Amino acid sequence: MTEQLLERLPHGRVIAVDASPAMVRLAAERLGDRADVRVADLTTLELEAPVDAVLSTATLHWIADHDALFARLRGVLRDGGRLVAQCGGAGNVVAVRDATAAVGAQAPFAQALEGFDPWTFATAEETEARLRAAGFVQARCWLEPRDVSTAGAPEEYLRTVMLGAHLQRLAPEHHDAYVTAVLARLGDFHVAHYVRLNIEAVA
Ligand SMILES: C[S@@+](CC[C@H](N)C(=O)[O-])C[C@H]1O[C@@H](n2cnc3c(N)ncnc32)[C@H](O)[C@@H]1O
C-alpha cells in the first residue's frame, strides 16, 4: 500500500508506520529511501508536524480502544486533513470468530485463550460517532461485505492469515491441534466472509 501511495504522490512525503519491527524492517528494505518507515503504535503516534492525510489498511481492527485511536489520528492531522481507512467491521469473519471462541474455551487451549478476542469489529454508526467525538468535522463510514477464497488451502489460510494472534499465545506444540480444531468447527471453509469497514473523515 505504501508503495502504491508513493507512486501517486511523486512530490509528496510519506511516513509509513507499523507497531511491528519485523513489518517495518521488510517495508524499509523494500522501499529504501523512498519512504520514512517507523515503528510506532497508532494509539500513541507522535509526528514532528501535522500531516495532510492518513491512510490505513487492514490494521484498525487490531486496536481495542478506538476512541483513543481516533483522537490520536486527529491529533497528527492538520485542520482539513483527511483520514481514509479500511479495516474489519461488524460481522467480519463471524464464523471464524465463533469457532475461535468455542475452541479457545476448551482444554488444552483455555489456559492461554479463554476469553481472548484480538479483534474490534465496529459498526459504521459507532465509528462515525467516535470520529466526531475525536474532533473530526465530517465522518462517513460504511460496511462492505467481501467473500475471499481460501485458495484451496483452508488450513494454511487459517494458520497464516487469520489466527496469528491466537497462535502467538499458544505453546508451539499446541499449534497444529488448535488450527485443526478451529477448522473442524468451521466445517466448510473454502470462502472467508469478510465485512470491511470503510472510513472517510475530515479533520
Ligand atoms: C494485516 S496487517 C496490515 C499491514 C499493512 N497495513 C497492509 O495493509 O498490508 C495488520 C498490521 O497492523 C499492525 N498493528 C496492530 N496494532 C497496531 C497498532 N496499535 N499500531 C500500529 N500498528 C498496529 C500489525 O503490526 C500488522 O502489521
Ligand inventory reads: S-adenosylmethionine
Gross CATH architecture: 3-Layer(aba) Sandwich
Domain tally: 1
> What's the CATH first level?
Alpha Beta
Name the poorly predicted regions.
none
* N-C termini distance: 22 Å
- CATH fold type: Rossmann fold
Summarize the structure.
The chain has 203 residues and is of the alpha/beta class. It has helices spanning 2-8, 21-31, 66-76, 94-104, 110-113, 124-133, 154-162, 164-169, 175-186; strands at 15-18, 36-39, 51-57, 77-88, 138-149, 191-202.
Structural notes for this entry:
It contains nine helices and six strands. The protein is α/β, with parallel strands linked by helices and 203 residues long. The strands form two sheets. Strands 3-4-6-5 form a four-stranded mixed β-sheet. Strands 1-2 form a two-stranded parallel ribbon. It is globular. The model has no long low-confidence stretch (mean pLDDT 97). Bound molecules: S-adenosylmethionine. InterPro entries: Methyltransf_11, SAM-dependent_MTases_sf. This is Methyltransferase domain-containing protein.
How do the helices and strands line up, and which of them pair or pack?
Blueprint: H1 2-8, E1 15-18, H2 21-31, E2 36-39, E3 51-57, H3 66-76, E4 77-88, H4 94-104, H5 110-113, H6 124-133, E5 138-149, H7 154-162, H8 164-169, H9 175-186, E6 191-202
Parallel strand pairs: 1-2, 3-4
Antiparallel strand pairs: 4-6, 5-6
Helix pairs in contact: 3-6, 4-9
This protein binds S-adenosylmethionine.
